[in-house]
Amino acid sequence: MAASYPSLRFKLVVVIMGCLVCASAASFSEEFDVSWGNGRGRLEKNGELLTLSLDKASGSGFQSKKEYLFGKIDMQLKLVPRNSAGTVTAYYMKSAGYRWDEIDFEFLGNLSGEPYTVHTNVYCNGKGDREQQFRIWFDPTTHFHTYSILWNPHSIVFSIDGIPIRQFKNLEWVGVPFPKKQAMRIYSSLWNADEWATRGGLIKTDWSQAPFTSSYRNFKAQACTLAFGKHVCTPNIAYMLRQELDATSLKRLRWVQKNHMIYNYCTDTKRFPQGFPPECRY
Description:
Layout: H1 5-17, H2 28-31, E1 32-36, E2 41-44, E3 49-54, E4 60-64, E5 68-78, E6 87-94, E7 102-108, E8 117-123, E9 132-135, E10 145-151, E11 155-160, E12 163-169, E13 185-192, E14 212-227, E15 230-232, H3 247-259, E16 261-264
Antiparallel strand pairs: 1-4, 2-3, 3-14, 4-13, 5-10, 5-14, 6-7, 6-13, 7-8, 8-9, 9-16, 10-11, 11-12, 14-15
């Protein structure tokens, strides 16, 4: 592994030295387009707030105007309140094409008073199947909370309010694909998935509760962008391209995985009776 990183670092440094722009905190109207939903996705408060809604006819979604390669993405979400069973709020990064890369947060709805499930996944070259799920330790429907993706050549870290919940390391040296070549847009959508989302599909969407609504604010991207076919970064984010979890963050990660993880593909013997994927050993 040590032999593979220097060349990648060199390429990034060259880009950084010649950079001009980098995404930062901005209004939703400047950074995103409501991409579907026929009016169910709405910009409010002069573009500082974005809401998505779902009813029996349709859900809704938005996507970023820019593409990103490496950096840190923060978004504050307030999820569908009360009985949200059957609904899914997806918040993710994804590249274009048949062999796409993707980094997923999905929030699976629940009956009133039950905790939300956070579903995470990582795709590389169109292949995922790397799911981990967690029960959120707070009510994510009453206040906004920050959901973050830190993505650099070393790893992908999923965090909630600054607490890491999952790390997917670059283990190309043992043959595990890692997303590092394809720029990704940011997407979010609110849609009906009652065939599987809540208790494996046992609890269906109660349409008498519609419309269901998720809210977004305080988007911030400290990340390299794709401009004129080149990846453009600024020096103030160079440290993120090398950033790894410190001792305190690793302790918090272990706490979440011990107390709040409810599914890990790396322990699912029914899916992998012949042995787990190689990344599960590290």
